[in-house]
Amino acid sequence: MALEIAIKEVDGISVISLVGTMTTGTTLSIAEAKIVKLIDSGNRRAVLDLSQVSYCDSGGLGMLVSVAGSMDSQGGKLRIAGGNEKLARTFKLTHTDNIFLIDTTVEDALQHFRHASATA
User: Fold this and answer.
1) Quick check: helix, strand or coil at residue 25?
2) Cβ(19)–Cβ(51) under 8 Å?
3) Which residue has the higher pLDDT, 65 or 120?
4) For residue 1, what are the contacts with CB-CB under 8 A and spacing of at least 6?
């Protein structure tokens, strides 16, 4: 299944939903370009919803590292939410769970941003 992307805003936070497989190819590149464009346009708080991602290969993992790095270099925060058990194992095996901000659900990720805003 090709990768689909949908972006919405919730309380000033971009929620980027990915659906399908995150595998090396054109649709992954298009998704990455859309996310980078969002970051370049000034967005500094985003949640990447992976709850509908069924599989992620090394290309998909590389894209996640790349967009997280882009957000970080712009002074923003990208939280990853909703990943399945297989993705969680992949993050742990590759030690990317140490660099990603990971939440169980999109709502949990949004709450982290809301709490950070309230205490800032």
Assistant:
1) coil
2) no
3) 65
4) 19, 20, 21, 54
